[in-house]
Design a protein that fits this description.
Number of strands: 2
Strand order of the largest sheet: 1-2
Structural class: mainly alpha
Helix content: over 70%
Distance between the termini: 22 Å
Oligomer: single chain
Strand content: under 5%
Number of domains: 1
Mean pLDDT: 87
Largest sheet: 2 strands, antiparallel
Number of helices: 3
């Protein structure tokens, strides 16, 4: 494999990961907190409607989980393409 091929594959993997994370972020922040809030409000969590909970608390937990997921997956991608810091 040439160096150029490796860099293209690396960036393709990185952009694929970022795309997936941004889709989850959009679904949680806009979907659960705004668009689907009415449907989610029929379920109660901790005494609050689920749509409200996602808009206020749940999205923060998901965002933190996404940070750790990104760190783990990016480390795997770096090791796969041998660009990790040793």
């Amino acid at each position: 494999m040439s160096e150029k091929y490796d860099s293209h594959a690396y960036w393709r993997a990185t952009l694929s990961l970022l795309t997936k994370i941004l889709i989850v972020w959009a679904l949680v922040s806009y979907g659960a907190g705004i668009i689907f809030a009415g449907a989610l409000d029929s379920v109660m969590l901790g005494g609050y409607p689920l749509g409200f909970w996602f808009a206020q608390q749940g999205s923060i937990y998901v965002f933190i989980a996404l940070i750790f997921y990104y760190r783990k997956k990016m480390g795997e991608i770096d090791r796969k393409f041998d660009v990790d810091e040793k």
